[in-house]
Design brief:
mainly alpha; 2 domains; Synovial_Prolif_Regulator; Protein SAAL1
């Protein structure tokens, strides 16, 4: 994966690693720990005999190579990163080195804020991007939860663009679900049901991951950030309503705390939202 520019080869290697990690957690742990065990100040002659292999930088380098030429390959490498975050050692492999954590964050942040599911894309694009978005948001959420003190995660820099992207995903998700329900394409009833179930399954995974991530972001918001979001358009009644529809009822306490903060910034909007969501128990 490292130093290769052969996209076809990277694609095949990625698929193998993805399957191996998915089937054999012990092997994945060994790869992670072998990289972590390599001393940073290893003498050059020893390095030639035992080359340093750190899985996360290799995955990132491969992902950057396949990004523009092979979207399916990018999906595979994002899934590898997501698999790594299912283990504590894997999370540490990403975040313990500030440079690796920042490189991972920068790549994934750029993907969700500037490439995937953009405002000028047709909503149906989400069907093509739902699996890779689920992986990317999952890894971002893990880094966000574990590395809040890092400079590259300062809330004023990342929260509003991420909120905007997550809410756009929710909006497109609603469009896709309505389109599936109203589909009139000629097809057998059984095939329709099977396709719909598969689509619903992947969209539900994306929704669950996105909701958890958005709830984590909401919990770190300051009044200043909310005020700026209202001025810049990342937050308004329509977008807040969309977020609440997806977060409720599971994340009711988070939404209620957000409403309390919003009440101090824009009382009229907060009151409108409380009226639209009467189940919220907010004391202001």
């Amino acid at each position: 994966m490292s130093s290769s520019t052969n996209v076809d080869l990277l694609m095949k290697v990625g698929e193998v690693v993805d399957k191996l990690f998915d089937l054999d957690e012990k092997l994945m742990l060994e790869w992670i720990q072998n990289g972590a065990a390599q001393p940073l100040d290893q003498p050059q002659e020893d390095a030639e005999e035992q080359p340093v292999f750190r899985i996360v930088p290799c995955v990132l380098e491969a992902a950057k190579q396949v990004r523009s030429e092979n979207p399916e390959g990018l999906d595979v490498y994002m899934r590898i990163l997501q698999l790594l975050t299912t283990m504590d050692d894997g999370i540490q492999a990403i975040v313990q080195c500030p440079d690796t954590g920042k490189d991972t964050w920068d790549l994934l942040f750029d993907l969700v804020c500037h490439e995937f599911c953009q405002s000028d894309d047709p909503p149906i694009i989400l069907q093509e991007q739902k699996t890779v978005l689920a992986s990317v948001f999952s890894v971002l959420s893990t880094i966000y939860a574990s590395q809040a003190e890092q400079e590259y995660l300062k809330t004023e820099k990342v929260d509003l663009p991420l909120i905007d992207s997550l809410i756009r995903v929710f909006q497109n998700m609603e469009h896709c679900q309505k389109k599936s329900e109203n589909s009139t394409e000629p097809n057998t009833e059984e095939t329709k049901k099977s396709d719909l179930t598969q689509d619903d399954f992947h969209l539900k995974i994306l929704k669950d991951i996105s909701c958890e991530f958005l709830s984590n972001i909401f919990q770190t918001l300051t009044k200043e950030t909310v005020s700026r979001g209202l001025k810049e358009g990342q937050l308004n009644k329509q977008k807040c309503s969309c977020a609440f529809q997806n977060l409720l009822p599971l994340y009711s306490p988070v939404v209620e705390d957000f409403i309390k903060m919003l009440h101090e910034v824009d009382k009229a909007l907060a009151d409108d939202l409380k009226e639209s969501f009467p189940s919220l128990k907010v004391q202001t």
